User: Fold this.
Amino acid sequence: MWLLLKNGRIIDPSQGLDKVADLLIMDGKVSKIGKVNAKKLDNNGVAYDVSGLVVTPGLIDMHVHLREPGQEHKETIETAALAAAAGGFTTIVGMPNTLPAIDNRAMVEYVLNKGMSAAVNVLTTGAATKANEGKEMAEIGDMVNAGAVAVSDDAFPVQSADLMRMVMEYSRMFDVPVVVHCEDKSMTHDAVMNEGIVCSILGLRPWPRQAEEIMIARNIMLAELAKCKLHIQHITTAAGVELVRSAKAKGLNVTAETCPQYFSLTDEALNEYDSNAKCCPPLRTQADVDAIKQGLADGTIDVIATDHAPHAIEEKEVEIPYAPFGMIGLETALPLVITNLVKPGVLSLADAIAKLTEAPAKALGLKSGRLTEGSIADITVIDPEASVKVNASQMKSMARNTPFDGAELIGKTVATIVGGTVVYGADSLNTI
Amino acid sequence: MKLKRKDILGLQDMSTEEIRLILDTAISHKGIISRPVKKVPILKGKSVCTLFYENSTRTRTSFEYAAKIMSADTTSISVAGSAITKGESFKDTLLTLEALGVDLFVIRHAAGGASHFAAKTVKSHVINAGDGMHEHPTQGLLDMLTILENKGKIEGLKVLIVGDIMHSRVARSNLWGLSKMGAEVRLCGPSTLLPAEVEKLPVKVFENLDEAIEGVDVVNVLRIQLERMDRGFFPSNREYAELFGVNKARLLRAKSDVTIMHPGPMNRGVEITADVADADFSVITDQVTNGLAVRMALLYLLLGGGGHVASA
Assistant:
């Protein structure tokens, strides 16, 4: 069983590869990159002409809210995986804030088992504390042994510095990163949006940038003490970028991510009280957007993840202070990266791909995110020049909560291949 | 003449022409209030619904009187006595009332942006009667009408707004309206009760009341909203009164013909002393009457059939 992608521009940042070539998949694995003559292969396969398109390692999103179990009215593992496939992601990593929380082996196994039949690879983090309550450490060792790829307090950031230190020191034994959502909750009570002039005019409760930065600083200091791997989620502010930059300069084992909304939008997106633009941390200012781009360009920010946070229509269609935080992102991430980072020259296409493949794989210690011979054939085929108009109603996600609905963007997922099988876009590939 | 807009959500996006039209219309409507028979048939057959998710006495009563004087039918819905307590969403409440034929909603809500939400949800008119900390446009308009009556103009006046600026929708509507009409707006309050980046607004900002009050024509004293003081913004009412209370001694620094306003309800002895509240230069009850006139004007401008009120 083989699958041949003919004449694509193959970009694999993990090996510095960027050339036009054929890519042959045999039995679900990358078999050859170079010149392949389809006529010499047996009849048990298909060849596609991908000239003019870009072939990359399958994209990895290390920050996804799967909502299952417990909130299947928002999203399920199955639908999140379909959305991921449509967005070019071949691996998604679930956050532990489900109901109940992913805080023990049985829950980790539940997600991984459910994920076996999903369109893409589904991985999960394990909760740092039991029930995400920030009181007692969860069974981190057992969860890691069951397959959890990281420990996280996402959505329920651990407020006690002493407990966070414990989590970090303990996690070090299992060589998994501690993935942190940085927010000092004492400063964000009932907060809706970034503290600043836009918030002051709209009369909404402010979410000050310092609430994020204080926790980034704290977590960096604790990680230094605990000698653990630290991954900082969704950085949104200029000072946050600077904190990570200086931590890296000190040689600490820190990685950082941002999300497309934080380099694509500012707090002005809330001017009409659009609850779909309400996310946590909140959208910041143009100066922050510029600093995030700079951080991406100079390597301070390693990873682009989505923080895909699906909510039901009726949950978002309320007065904005009562709406839940978050937006979906799996199906808009790639065009936003190309439109707002690659086209303006902030990142080369290869560097952008690296932040969606090699970098998250490295942060989590995954073997995927590369196209070396023998590696699992998780592959994304991209048209980086195609114009797309975002249409939320046509998305594969169950949710519709995106502030980008109707946006005209550049860049599109043509096809997504997981383990050698085309899971998205088979119809739009040209068979030879 | 009608307003070329469906809704009144705030003064930030209102033009000076619109503000002038509303104030002129309010002046011409005010006479009706003092007539022996306070009734004109101009909005007969129109349905006005006051939908209040927060307690209010004067604003709600004022809108209801305004609608009744103009012969509109009124319904009032409050949180306690409706399906809202059964968990019906704001959206469904609005759609239900619209289906009952409501032509105009008057909405007060604790959430900023609630009136924007309503305006997008229904085809009926929406007047914002206060949305969280955002705006309270009819209060801004009635304050401007009161200033206009007392000073004969707005342009060039120095107007001080003192108190809890951060949580005040009255302050926001006032500063937009007054600055558009050419007044110098001064804001003064404890540093903890000034909103972030307040200096980017078209105002002068003070943290010292004695400096702020120097030479002003009007002082608009805001209520300390005890229900919003959940975070310890200042140590005590006693210290607040000492530093930011408006009293006669402080008013000596203002213009000799200074006018005192307060949107009510007052905390006498906290933000304003009783002798100032009751002084002859205090126009607090005039504000209430002007509130009625402004609301009649808005109902007329949004719902009116075009006939001039004087001939009605």
